[in-house]
Design a protein that fits this description.
This protein is an alpha/beta fold. The chain has eight helices and ten strands. A hairpin with a 2-residue loop joins β4 and β5. The radius of gyration is 19 Å and the shape is globular. The structure holds adenosine-5'-triphosphate (ATP) and magnesium ion (MG). Magnesium ion (MG) binds next to α1.
Length: 278
């Protein structure tokens, strides 16, 4: 199902010297709760280059969202370094971080996180207002057109389907032309048809605009549409694999449930080859 296995935290999948958009080095995250400490991330190092389309998989509680929050500069690691576009984010103040989030990162969440009483166009304009840039309405309209919502500019979230709401959220994430789009289970609350539409948009943005995209999914079928799959378990990278021939959203039939479950079991727990991880 995937390409050749890479050793955990080992050699980069590509030997290109092109600069990494995301470069994290030995990141740890520990939560301190009174007497109890919980080490959620245990030394994660990753390089993600411009134009890569990466999915992060792993069992519930393995640290995927914790890692995404650090990648998104929403949270700081306990130790380790994080270079975003070559800039050391782990040394930044809260106000500098807020600026980085606004300028360099686009977020897409599982539950869309749209403002309930705000029309689509306005939702997409908001990050531009925070950034203080001109031509906001024009840019917001273009972003909504890019996700196929040019006819829904003045709709409220309640007047849109789940898939359309997620597309508004994608337009909001891409309108600032971020260095990277981070999405935590963006298709998790969607039916399979809407999920496919959302995947088509991510694939097109990645292909046409080389937008670096990282997203979390529990769904191996969705992961097979990306170029690289990183597996976490207990706060560590246990596999980092190229997808040899990524699927094109909407082209192939989804395999039967049994095949899918077998796939996720093997990929998550054994990284596809049991003997390499025992
Ligand atoms: N603020 C916090 N304080 C204490 N523990 C936390 C905190 N946030 C997360 N955790 C713990 O860290 C671990 C990893 O959580 P995380 O949300 O990253 O998992 P996940 O891989 O995203 O899981 P899921 O697939 O269920 O979304 C869990 O055991 C969780 O209970
Ligand atoms: Mg999570």
């Amino acid at each position: 199902m995937f390409g050749r296995l890479q050793p955990p935290n080992g050699k980069k999948p590509s030997q290109s010297t092109e600069a990494a958009v995301i470069d994290i080095r030995n990141i740890t995250k520990t939560y301190f709760m009174g007497e109890v400490t919980l080490q959620v991330l245990r030394g994660i190092s990753l390089k993600i280059k411009r134009g890569e389309f990466v999915s992060i998989m792993g069992p519930s509680g393995s640290g995927k969202s914790t890692l995404m929050n650090i990648l998104g500069a929403l949270d700081q690691p306990t130790s380790g370094e994080y270079f975003l576009d070559g800039v050391d984010v782990s040394q930044m103040s809260e106000s500098e971080l807020a600026r980085v989030r606004n300028r360099k990162i686009g977020f897409v969440f599982q539950n869309f996180n749209l403002l309930r009483r705000t029309e689509a166009l306005r939702q997409v304009e908001l990050p531009l207002i925070y950034a203080g840039v001109p031509n906001r309405a024009k840019r917001a309209r273009a972003a909504l057109e890019a996700v196929g919502l040019g006819q829904r500019l003045d709709h409220l979230p309640s007047e849109l389907s789940g898939g359309q709401q997620q597309r508004v959220a994608i337009a909001r994430a891409l309108v600032t032309e971020p260095s990277v789009i981070l999405a935590d289970e963006p298709t998790g609350n969607l039916d399979s048809r809407s999920g496919t539409e959302v995947m088509q948009i991510f694939q097109r943005l990645n292909r046409e605009k080389q937008i670096t995209t990282v997203f979390v999914t529990h769904d191996p079928w969705i992961a097979r549409h990306t170029n690289r799959v990183i597996m976490l378990r207990d706060g560590k990278v246990v596999a980092d694999q190229r997808v040899k021939q990524p699927l094109i959203a909407g082209e192939a039939e989804r395999p039967s449930e049994a095949e899918e479950l077998q796939g996720i079991f093997e990929a998550t727990y054994y990284g596809g080859k049991k003997e390499e991880y025992t």
